Amino acid sequence: MRALALAVASESPKVHLTSQTRIIAAVLALAFMALVLELIRRDRLQERFSVVWFVAGVGMLIGAAFPGLLTLVADAMGVRDTNVALFSIVLLFLLGLALNFSVTMSRQATQITRLAQERALEDARQQSASAENGGEPRERGRAGS
Amino acid sequence: MRTLVFVPAWNEQDSIAAVIADVRACIPDADLLVIDDGSTDATAGRAREAGALVASLPFNQGLGAALQTGYLYARREGYEAIAHLDADGQHPPAEVARLLAEVRADRADLVIGSRYRDPEKAESDDYKPTFSRRIGIGVFRFFLTLATRQRFTDTTSGMRAANRRVIEMFSERYSPDFAEIESLQLAVREGLRVEEVPVRMLERTGGSSFLTPLRSAFFIFKGLIVLLVGQFRPTGAER
Predict the structure, then answer these.
(1) Which architecture characterizes domain B3-230 according to CATH?
(2) CB pairs A-B closer than 8 Å
(3) Among B36, B48, B65, whose Cβ lies nearest the Cβ of A117?
């Protein structure tokens, strides 16, 4: 482990991507974007949630095509090791995205609750209306109850 | 004063009819609403047979959402006072009537029924909690008192009475996750008069408690975060 760390540290701060890894990375990025497209096509993913994933796919593609950019970014961040810069950026991106989803989920949970409450109150109102009319409480056509 | 008594119920088919009958006998001048929180048993049907108006949530949404449904109904239908109690038979309606009397006399905006007569103790004559519960009770007492600078003993009590001001506030803002405690914090922060009244409570007649030690620990942890965050929430005056 220590030997590996030393080996990495002793390397120059330049990125060493062989053309092979670059091709693999580009193919993965394209496959990822194709997957996103396919999900939208099959209505499994709404367009408004797909933008961020497309941007991510494009980012991957750019990174594969111009690895020199990564070095620039790492320099700008003041990080010697380009890998660390890359992982930090990806990690922060995913963290932000996960938080964003939690916010979205919270909002939707509130909306679902309010919807359920309105439905319940409507239920009660109909019951009291039919009771006032002297009629029998209406049949409840709810499945699973 | 138009009064609504509501009872949140989740799978309480064994006790709901008796609770409804008791409420009718002890608080005859109040309307009664049962909020069926997505029960999978015969709760809604039995409540209806017992003559109560039933609002059925289409799926289980938790106690907070169920209680808020009651507050929402009270606001829409123009009730001036409400009381709510648990459906498991722990809360004698005669005691609920005492809480309502406090609200009707305008001595408080929100009245909590506390099972503790002695604020120093985590038990009372008719209530002997388990060890993990005792810890939870102590922790919540301490932190809620710290947060509100007002003494509370039964922080999670589901027996309460309230007036129009509280109805309007809780129908809009009521935490779905930690309803009992956060609502107290919110009410105090909004400058409402919150009062605790010692009441007699009974052993539950149906259902079972959901708390295991691990759940209790998680419950306590979650409660503390909720309280902490609640301290930084904007109040009505600031919004």
Answers:
(1) Alpha-Beta Complex (3.90)
(2) 54
(3) B65
